[in-house]
Write a structure and sequence with these properties.
Order of helices and strands: EEHEHEEEEHEEEEHEEHHHEEEEEEEEE
Largest sheet: 6 strands, mixed
Helix content: 10-25%
Oligomer: single chain
Length: about 500
């Protein structure tokens, strides 16, 4: 893990960002709720420890980013392949992977406080590259059996097989299918020759189903910290080779910089177009190799382009014959008017059961009077479609706690204890018939929850098809008491 700590000029902590390579796919595709997975959970916990509360206006809110790196072949499923019979353990396993990142981040963040501060100029180089036709210079033609350029984007047969650890795709297709495994039949002989071991299942770039013009970007802070932003999921070894290549270039360009740190790879940045493997990994044609769109030379072509970006950044202002200019005239194609579909179908009408109202508790589903630590509060409300208002920077639910206050006529005030962004709450929407909806709110009570009186509040917006207006509503459950250990679960 690489971590950067950011403090203001007055020494006040602003935030931190770290890069660690692991897929945020701990929760399987069976899980239909919104989740930040292991990285989101780690960021939430780190920010909470620093006092950040997202629903409260605070000019100095601390921001923690658990960023992605070259995670292409790094699975979070450390307990083995995922099966339907073990999916109930996904959340527990997700927390395990998140806590591993969180513990390391805490340690590095504390150590950074005593490290030598870095200050200096920020510079960058950016270029759009047509990845379908990158011509390799002589020194980058490392594989004699390969062509001297990249290829038009394609996906291989093993791509549709999925992965053994993180979820199968088409069950009948296995990973590792190479060109020549089956009879050599193709309708794209020239393209197939460029893709070498990958048996092409579909030429995605040719039909505009994957981008071919992609952005590469290099950042520099004080000439000693560098970020290489790539639009791919790079494997572990592919990332190592790119960092080593870029580090060699930077050492040649910056001989006077003593504290030159190893570059950081920021994966899936600015755009996305599949994976990137080493030549050896590509030849095996597992899922990652079959998802490397531009052929066996994709990695060395990327190393070549980052060398050009580094030279442009540091030599373009000098009268050095080694300096090169970057062709910035190449832009990605516009997708306006190209039949891009909007799948966000608007809500026509929200209805509610006769004799009830939006926000009312469903009969027979109200809360108990008492709950103990480790138990789960569950309550259902008559509701509308949540798509009417996504409540950005707000919340669909509130766990409210009663705070006594002698200065108020009511004797106290309800304050927010938890919301839909907390990891111990869930908000589930279900359709009831044609127009009616119901939401189920759950709150798991941890052992750190203060004892006292609580209630659950739901927020939403309903739409009537005659007036086409969206009207906000809210509703609350009965109050209940958290009494600590020993209460009903």
């Amino acid at each position: 893990m690489t971590l950067w700590r950011f403090d203001g000029l007055d020494g006040y902590p602003i935030g931190m960002i770290n890069w660690f390579a692991v897929h945020p796919t701990s929760m399987g595709n069976w899980y239909t709720l919104i989740t930040g997975d292991n990285k989101g959970y780690a960021a939430y916990e780190f920010e909470r420890e620093q006092g950040t509360k997202h629903l409260m206006d605070r000019p100095r809110a601390f921001v923690a980013a658990f960023a992605q790196s070259n995670e292409g072949d790094v699975s979070p499923n450390i307990c083995g392949p995922r099966y339907p019979c073990t999916q109930h353990k996904d959340f527990e396993r997700m927390v395990t992977v998140a806590n591993a990142q969180l513990d390391c981040a805490r340690k590095l963040y504390a150590e950074a406080l005593t490290a030598q501060p870095i200050a200096g100029n920020v510079s960058f180089a950016h270029q759009y590259v047509d990845y379908c036709s990158i011509q390799l210079e002589k020194r980058w033609q490392l594989n004699a059996e390969c062509p001297t350029s990249t290829s038009s984007g394609c996906i291989g047969v093993s791509m549709v097989s999925g992965t053994e650890f993180d979820g199968r795709g088409v069950p009948a297709i296995k990973e590792g299918i190479r060109w020549g495994t089956y009879p050599k039949v193709t309708t794209l002989p020239e393209l197939q020759s460029l893709q070498k071991e990958k048996p092409i299942i579909f030429p995605t770039a040719r039909y505009g189903m994957s981008p071919k013009v992609l952005p590469l970007q290099l950042f520099s802070i004080a000439d000693c910290l560098h970020i290489a932003a790539v639009p791919f999921e790079m494997t572990t070894m592919a990332g190592r080779r790119l960092r080593a290549s870029l580090m060699t270039s930077l050492k040649e360009l910056l001989p006077g910089v003593k504290e030159l740190h190893e570059p950081v790879i920021a994966g899936l940045s600015n755009a996305y177009c599949g994976y990137m493997t080493t030549r050896e990994e590509y030849a095996v044609q597992r899922y990652e190799g079959a998802s490397t769109h531009f052929g066996p030379n994709q990695l060395v072509a990327t190393c070549q382009q980052f060398e050009i970006l580094a030279k442009t950044m540091y030599l373009s202002s000098k009268s050095d014959h080694k300096a090169r200019s970057v062709n910035v005239g190449l832009n990605p194609p516009s997708i306006k008017g190209m039949g891009v579909l909007d799948y966000n179908i608007p809500v026509i009408h929200d209805g509610v059961a006769s004799g009830s109202s939006f926000g009312a508790v469903v009969l027979g589903s109200d809360v108990l009077k008492e709950y103990g630590w480790g138990s789960t509060v569950k309550v259902c409300f008559h509701a509308a479609h949540p798509k009417n208002n996504l409540r950005t920077q707000s919340t669909f639910l509130e766990v409210q706690r009663w705070m006594p206050d002698c200065d108020r006529n009511e004797g106290g005030i309800w304050v927010i204890h938890a919301d839909d962004g907390d990891t111990n709450t869930t908000f589930r929407w279900t359709r009831q018939g044609t127009f009616r909806s119901m939401v189920t709110v759950e709150w798991h009570i941890s052992e750190t929850t203060p004892k006292g009186k609580y209630r659950i509040k739901v927020n939403g917006d309903c739409k009537h098809f005659l007036w086409r207006t969206v009207t906000p509503y809210s509703g609350v459950s009965s109050s209940f008491t958290v009494v600590g250990p020993g209460a009903p679960a």
